[in-house]
Amino acid sequence: MNKMSPKVDGYIRKNKKWQEELQKLRTIILDCPLTEEVKWRVPCYTFQQSNIVILGAFKESCTLSFVKGALLKDARGILQIPGPNTQSARVIRFTDVREIIQVAPVLKVYIHEAIEVENAGLKVAFKKITEHPIPEEFQTKLDKIHALKTAFTSLTPGRQRAYLLYFSAAKQSKTREARVEKCLPRILRGKGLDDE
């Protein structure tokens, strides 16, 4: 079995509602040739330093997320798209340890397939940043503040996308404007929406 991280022990202990489920998922994952780490404050399992799967604990379920799940065959039809803007990740949600025990052999097959996808160097074809609409409230700021435009275009495509989705998600112009204003200093510092 692979080395277990004390930080993951802490994550599992902290999520009391899903402790048994998370521990079972962890055991299944560590039976595969993956390295246990903590990234983004959650358990992340890597193969040769590439992210393969992530454990998550939420109010209604715990999840096993496949980072490049969109590239998996999903022969059993159990992978779900976590959100409307998700392009790469796919998740399996669990609410009971018995569900996990039932599909344990399938999970190992999916994990091994995910490792093969990584070994083959396959990439998810992401939408280009130019395919995401820029909210008018943000475009106005980009047009007025040259340093903002420079800082924004210097961000990675993923960070740019996160900001555009965050701004666009607001239904009212006033809310979009407030979000843009709040994020301006972060963008100017070269930080992504979720960077610390």
Chain-wise SSE layout:
Blueprint: H1 6-14, H2 19-30, E1 35-39, E2 42-47, E3 50-57, E4 62-66, E5 90-94, H3 97-119, H4 136-144, H5 146-154, H6 157-169, H7 173-188
Antiparallel strand pairs: 1-2, 2-3, 3-4, 4-5
Helix pairs in contact: 2-3, 4-5, 6-7
The spatial strand order of the largest sheet comes to: 1-2-3-4-5
Number of strands: 5
Radius of gyration: 19 Å
- Under the CATH scheme, the architecture of the largest domain is Alpha-Beta Complex
Name of the top-level CATH class of the largest domain: Alpha Beta
SSE order? HHEEEEEHHHHH
Helix content: 40-55%
CATH topology of the largest domain: Aspartate Aminotransferase, domain 1
Please report the number of helical segments.
7
Which structural category do the helix and sheet elements fall into?
A: alpha+beta
Mean pLDDT: 93
Termini distance?
33 Å
Beta strand %: 5-15%
Total number of distinct structural domains: 2
What sort of overall outline do the alpha carbons produce when their principal axes are compared? elongated
Largest sheet: 5 strands, antiparallel
Q: Extract low-pLDDT stretches.
A: none
General description of the model:
The chain is of the alpha+beta class. It folds into two domains: 114 residues, Aspartate Aminotransferase, domain 1, CATH 3.90.1150; 60 residues, no CATH class. It has a five-stranded antiparallel beta sheet with strand order 1-2-3-4-5. α6 runs antiparallel to α7. The mean pLDDT is 93.
Salient structural properties:
alpha+beta; 2 domains; 5-stranded antiparallel beta sheet; 7 helices; 15% strand; elongated
